[in-house]
Specification:
zinc ion binding, Rossmann fold, 221 residues, zinc, globular, ATP-binding, ligase activity, forming carbon-nitrogen bonds, single chain
């Protein structure tokens, strides 16, 4: 991959997008990040993203996506909807319909404005909650559509697509960002930084991956 390329990272300040930020900083000479404000349940997410972007000295764009909140009532946009896993084949209450479709579309439009050809996102099909817009086939399809829509040649990168959470921790470690990601990011659905509340589905997934990776690392020493 050429080093004189520019990338935009879709950035929430969580474990996955922060790992992707460190990945992009290694791969590209110029990196900017974009965070979407859709009146999400915890504004802390945006504050964390701001702090990390400033700390890593990358330009930070915050785009107003409040319309998504109006269209997609769910546990991430409403305080009165319980965070819970899907049952009997249903999607979790945290699924936001159209979120990645809109986020990646607007990130690509932004990329065009700032002269970037690469969009990086932390979606993953291996350790995920069944969200259809995290699938590889969706991302590849959207990449083609966006290129056709703007008659351009953007590339959407998904460095975590085939990694489970333990492997994502390993990637952060390989990038020299293990402690940073563990301490500075916000993954918790209840808005608790670092290791989180330890009870919500996001925290459980994160902790299981962390425990698996740490145990593997201890064995290999």
């Amino acid at each position: 991959m050429k080093k004189n390329n520019k990338a935009v990272v879709v950035f929430s300040g969580g474990q996955d997008s922060t790992t992707c930020l460190f990945w992009a900083l290694k791969k590209f000479d110029s990196v900017e990040v974009v965070t979407f404000d859709y009146n999400q349940r915890h504004k802390e997410e945006i504050e964390v993203a701001k702090e990390i972007a400033e700390d890593q000295q990358v330009r930070h764009h915050i785009l107003d996506m409040s319309l998504l909140n109006q269209l997609a009532p769910n546990a991430l946009t409403r305080d009165d909807i319980e965070v819970k896993d899907g049952e009997d084949g249903e999607l979790p209450s945290t699924f936001v319909p159209g979120r990645n479709l809109l986020f990646l579309s607007f990130a690509t439009i932004l990329a065009r404005q700032i002269g970037a050809k690469h969009i990086v996102t932390g979606v993953c099909e291996t350790d995920f909650s069944g969200y259809p817009d995290c699938r590889d086939v969706f991302v590849k399809s959207l990449n083609v559509t966006l290129n056709l829509s703007m008659d351009d040649e953007f590339v959407i990168h998904t460095p975590l697509m085939w990694l489970d959470k333990a492997q994502t921790w390993e990637m952060a470690d390989d990038l020299g960002a293990f402690d940073y990601v563990r301490e500075k990011t916000l993954t918790c659905y209840n808005g608790v930084r670092g290791d989180g509340c330890g009870e919500c589905p996001a925290c459980e997934l994160r902790k299981n991956g962390l425990d698996t990776y740490v145990a593997k690392k201890e064995v290999s020493r």
